[in-house]
């Protein structure tokens, strides 16, 4: 079974599909190590981690595809990528879909914002005409080589035109061939309920930070969303926000040590060296060494001893 087919089955299953968001090698490895089988590649996270720039349309196609290719290469996760607006008109969308499919992901999200776009929970969004986005979806569906490759269509019209326009657009995108629908930045539980009951294809909802409330979409659990009929929930900001918090805490303690001369030992705030190596796949490297290095190479590398064991059970 292809990963694209598996993604379709996960979307169509009775249970809601919960997708943590990945944005680099660390986050991808941690998600897989934690037992998840599928993930969403967050465009905002890629822009912020790869470029050090906010999600306001500064990242281009090649940078985004390169990140997706690296993420797909370092894990067995089923991946749904973020293709922004497709980086141009319907012709550009055709090439964008081909590029992401070749990079190894199982599906791609495309949105109806004006380029340069911005994070769906920021102010100042603009959208293209519905008819133009319909043609982008037509181009996307025709471009995919694997008919199971998932096309996810996003609308940002709630901020500009209201719930009625959201429903109209999503149904038009579904009719054009989109497999999964997404209305970003819905403001209330009632809006989520209204949209899910009035669209013709499975609906995805953005839970952002996942474990922290925000000023836009209310914080709901996956179980609550499933009860509303939502098929997929993504958590685009959770891991990047957790990483930033962890780095800030670590640097604050390092600064304290530098300023006071005190030794600070806080194993509760960092994974061990062994766990880091385990998450990053060092055990697989050692298995390959054991299989393919000659006895002389092994002796030279480890001076006749065994490689240090890699922790398997410690999840920090």
């Amino acid at each position: 079974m292809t990963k694209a087919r598996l993604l379709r089955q996960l979307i169509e299953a009775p249970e809601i599909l919960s997708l943590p968001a990945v944005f680099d090698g660390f986050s991808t490895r941690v998600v897989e190590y934690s037992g998840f089988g599928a993930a969403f590649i967050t465009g905002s996270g890629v822009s912020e981690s790869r470029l050090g720039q906010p999600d306001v349309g500064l990242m281009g196609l090649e940078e985004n595809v390169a990140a997706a290719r690296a993420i797909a290469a370092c894990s067995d996760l089923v991946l749904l990528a973020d293709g922004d607006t497709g980086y141009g008109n319907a012709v550009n969308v055709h090439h964008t879909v081909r590029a992401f499919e070749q990079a190894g992901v199982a599906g791609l999200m495309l949105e109806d914002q004006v380029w340069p776009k911005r994070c769906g929970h920021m102010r100042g969004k603009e959208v293209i005409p519905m008819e133009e986005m319909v043609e982008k979806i037509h181009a996307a569906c025709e471009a995919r080589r694997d008919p199971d490759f998932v096309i996810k269509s996003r609308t940002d019209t709630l901020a500009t035109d209201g719930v009625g326009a959201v429903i109209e657009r999503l149904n038009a995108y579904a009719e054009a061939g989109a497999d999964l629908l997404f209305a970003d930045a819905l403001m209330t539980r009632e809006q989520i309920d209204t949209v899910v009951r009035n669209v013709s294809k499975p609906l995805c909802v953005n839970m952002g930070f996942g474990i922290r409330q925000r000023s836009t979409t209310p914080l709901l659990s996956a179980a609550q969303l499933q009860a509303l009929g939502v098929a997929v929930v993504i958590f685009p900001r959770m891991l990047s926000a957790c990483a930033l918090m962890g780095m800030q805490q670590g640097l604050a303690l390092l600064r304290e040590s530098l300023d006071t001369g005190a030794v600070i030992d806080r194993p509760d705030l960092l994974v061990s060296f062994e766990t880091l190596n385990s998450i990053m796949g060092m055990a697989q490297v050692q298995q390959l060494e054991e299989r393919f290095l000659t006895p002389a190479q092994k002796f030279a590398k480890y001076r006749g001893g065994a490689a240090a064991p890699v922790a398997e059970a410690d999840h920090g």
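The chain has two domains: 3-242, 271-303. The first strand starts at residue 17 and ends at 22.
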